[in-house]
Structures are given as C-alpha cells and as structure tokens.
C-alpha cells in the first residue's frame, strides 16, 4: 500500500488496547485509526474511521468478536480481520476463521510478528500456514454434513479453479501458483475472483478451510 495501513484495535481490556496502541501506532507505516471495547463498538468505529485491518479480540461481553467479524466481512468493502486470542487451541479461532478472519494472533505474539501480520493481510494475504489450519481443525469436532457441503461447493468450480483452490490450501502465493500452474499472476487473480464469488467466501483462509473440509488437503 502507498499509504499507511489504518488499523482498529478491539479488546475489552483497556490495558491490552493501550499496549497495542503504543506498540503499533506509527510502526512501519501503520496508524492506529481507533480503538473499541467490544464488537458493537467495533462496527461503529469501522463506519467512522474506515480501517484497513481490524485486530479483533474474540471473547468480549456484548457483541463478541466472532459475531462482529461475520458482520464486518459480510459488507461489500470489508476491512481485513485478524483474530486476537489467548489460546490457539480454542475452537473460537476456527469459528472466527469461518466467519472471515484472515488469520489469528496470540496476544503474546512479538511486536515484529504482529506488524508483519498486519501488513500481510492489508496486502490480501492469509497469515495461517496449512499445517496450523489442519491442526486447528483437527481439534474441533466437525459439524454434521460439513464435508458433503464443502464437496458440493467445490464441484461447482472448473477443473482449473479447483487446481487453484488446492494450491491456495497448500499455502502457495499468487506468484507460486502462477509458476506451478503455468499461468500469469493476473490469471491467478482472475481465477481467485471467480472462486470467491462461486464459493461465497471473502478470503484465502476460507478457501483453505473449504478444501480441508472436503478432504483435499
């Protein structure tokens, strides 16, 4: 991005909000546009400040982070969302990813890793490796019919689009996919646009989750 990445910090703990603001405001082209204490306030803050990325605590009173993430990601021009969590084994993490979060960060993640994650999701990337995605999903009991629904959704794709889905699920970047499938990066992006529309997803992480649900990875 040619301008600073604007972020919204959402956490019900004022100390966490203050620490993240002090840590991130002005760091490597990042500007803290606003803070919010719960999911309802987060939605209002997005309307008022138009952040590029939201750091979203998951467990909050009132409107929780998962609900807020789903509402924000359902918009026509949504901000990217990174889930903040204390435990990476929490099933709330997978629910947040299904709701549209691009990835998650533990609250004790080193500052340079948080900055890197913000810049990556602002550029449209996911911040989860396939191994982490698989480990998270293995810890959560699958919902009834999840695999069947995922296979049915992927069956609507062309052969080439399914190849792109598999490449995304294995963690390849657009440039890697272009080299692997012998196409231009622009063509990869065009396929991804069609895949998002056909599958009704909003980011690469949700594509990877569908591929895992369907047993492709």
TrEMBL record:
It comes from Allocatelliglobosispora scoriae. Gene3D superfamilies: 3.40.50.2300. The keyword Phosphoprotein applies. GO terms for molecular function: DNA binding. This is DNA-binding NarL/FixJ family response regulator. Residues 6-122 form the Response regulatory domain. Residues 150-215 form the HTH luxR-type domain. GO terms for biological process: phosphorelay signal transduction system; regulation of DNA-templated transcription. Keywords: DNA-binding, Phosphoprotein, Transcription, Transcription regulation. The modification 4-aspartylphosphate is found at residue 57. It comes from the Bacteria. The keyword Transcription regulation applies.
């Amino acid at each position: 991005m040619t301008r600073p990445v604007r972020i919204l910090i959402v956490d019900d703990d004022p100390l966490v909000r203050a620490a993240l603001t002090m840590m991130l405001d002005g760091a490597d082209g990042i500007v803290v546009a606003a803070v919010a204490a719960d999911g309802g306030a987060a939605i209002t803050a997005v309307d008022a400040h138009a952040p590029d990325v939201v750091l979203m605590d998951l467990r909050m009173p009132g409107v929780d982070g998962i609900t807020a993430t789903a509402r924000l990601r359902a918009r026509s021009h949504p901000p990217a969302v990174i889930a903040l969590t204390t435990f990476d084994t929490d099933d709330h993490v997978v629910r947040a990813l299904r709701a549209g979060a691009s990835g998650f960060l533990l609250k004790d993640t080193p500052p340079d890793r948080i900055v890197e994650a913000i810049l990556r999701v602002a550029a449209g990337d996911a911040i989860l490796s396939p191994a982490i995605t698989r480990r998270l999903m293995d810890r959560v009991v699958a919902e009834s019919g999840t695999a069947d629904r995922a296979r049915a959704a992927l069956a609507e794709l062309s052969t080439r689009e399914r190849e792109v889905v598999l490449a995304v699920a294995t963690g390849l970047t657009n440039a890697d996919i272009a080299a692997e499938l012998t196409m231009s990066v622009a063509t990869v992006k065009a396929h991804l646009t069609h895949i998002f529309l056909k599958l009704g997803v909003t980011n690469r992480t949700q594509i990877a989750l569908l591929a895992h649900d369907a047993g492709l990875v």
